[in-house]
Amino acid sequence: MTQKIIEASDQTWNEIISDKKKPVMTMFYIESCPHCQKMKPVFEALADQYSSQITFVRINAMTYLDITQKYNIYAAPAFKFFKNGQLLNKEDKTFNTEQLTQIASDLATGKL
């Protein structure tokens, strides 16, 4: 995994998503999930491209169930976006590569 992605835990979650300097793109994943494995390189490529403008975070959805449940996540991978500690997307929906790329671009340029 690239160093440009932070692995979050219960202890670091609130501090990470409250970043005032950069928006945060978070991937909730499950190790055994084939869809998560498919999206992992996409997430890593976005981190390589945008890490100077966006904080990229991964969190294990099964290990940190309190956080997963707090955001009503029922499937993985799930992506949540934060700006100044505020959740930007409340719905639980899946994103494809093109959608994630567009969201990363919008977060990086301040459109989101």
Describe how the helices and strands are arranged.
Layout: E1 5-7, H1 13-17, E2 24-29, H2 34-50, E3 55-60, H3 65-70, E4 78-83, E5 86-87, H4 97-109
Parallel strand pairs: 1-3, 2-3
Antiparallel strand pairs: 2-4, 4-5
Helix pairs in contact: 2-4
Describe this structure in words.
This protein has 112 residues and is α/β, with parallel strands linked by helices. The chain is 37% helix and 21% strand. A five-stranded mixed sheet has the order 1-3-2-4-5, with helices on one face. The protein is globular, with a radius of gyration of 13 Å.
Which terms summarize this structure?
alpha/beta; 4 helices; 112 residues; five-stranded mixed β-sheet; Glutaredoxin
Summarize the structure.
With 112 residues, the chain is α/β, with parallel strands linked by helices. It is 37% helix and 21% strand.
